[in-house]
Every structure is written in structure tokens, then in C-alpha cells.
Amino acid sequence: MKEKHTDATPQRPDGGRSIDSSLLFMDLPVLMEQIKNEAAWKTSDRNAITVFKSENMRIVLIALHEGTEVKRHTANGTISVQVMEGQIKFSTDKQSLQLNKGQMLTLHERIPHSVLAIKEAMFLLTLSVNMPEKQG
Predict the structure, then answer these.
(1) Using an 8 Å Cβ cutoff, are 121 and 86 in contact?
(2) What do you get for the CA distance between the two ends of the chain, in Å?
(3) pTM here?
(4) Which of 6, 53, 67, 85 could form a disulfide with 122 if both were Cys (CB 3.0 to 4.6 A apart)?
């Protein structure tokens, strides 16, 4: 397996780090602090950092200011949402759930959904990407 790294960017000058290796350690409290100290958090309604990215899985730490909405969309794989701080409202066409710190949900692929930060919130989004079946 080939290791993957992110490169530093103007927004994240210290951003060069591994995002995929055979064993990858993630210090979530440090990443949560990093998100809140970046300019994007101070000047926008949200900020996020990809903490892991492979062919079949992505993990993204997302921070939303109170009242921020991630508009209705779909994911091409099964997702999990784990609230690390604050409170969100997670809605599908059939159901809405309020999630607090320490609570988690899963959602199957291609189900339209939205997220609203009821209070300033930070959550871990995990996306399991379905691999195409091999022909032959």
C-alpha cells in the first residue's frame, strides 16, 4: 500500500501530514483545536479537515457554527456521524434526529439528508465508499 499525504496550503501552512498508511494515529482533540484556530473557522460558517482517506473510506472532522446548515445532499456510500461537541439536527425525508455530544448515527447510501448545527458543533463523518464489483 502506498502512503498518502496532504500538502501544506495557504489555508493550512502546517498541513503536510499523512492521511493514509497501514497504521494511522489520529489525535482528535488536537485536530479539533486546530480547526477552531484556523482562519476559515473565524471567517466562515464552517471548517473541516480530512483525517483519513483511502480508496474505500474517508473520515472528515467537520465544525459548524450555530445555525449553519449543510444543505440536503446524498452520499455515495454508507456514512456514520458521531458528534464530538455541541448539538446537531440530522434530517432525512422521513425522519429527523437531534444528536448531542457522544451520540452517533449511521445512514445507508444515496439517502438525501441535511445537517443543522443547533449549537456550535463538531462531528466526525465517516464515509464507506462502495467499491465496484470486479468483472471477470
Answers:
(1) yes
(2) 24
(3) 0.86
(4) 85
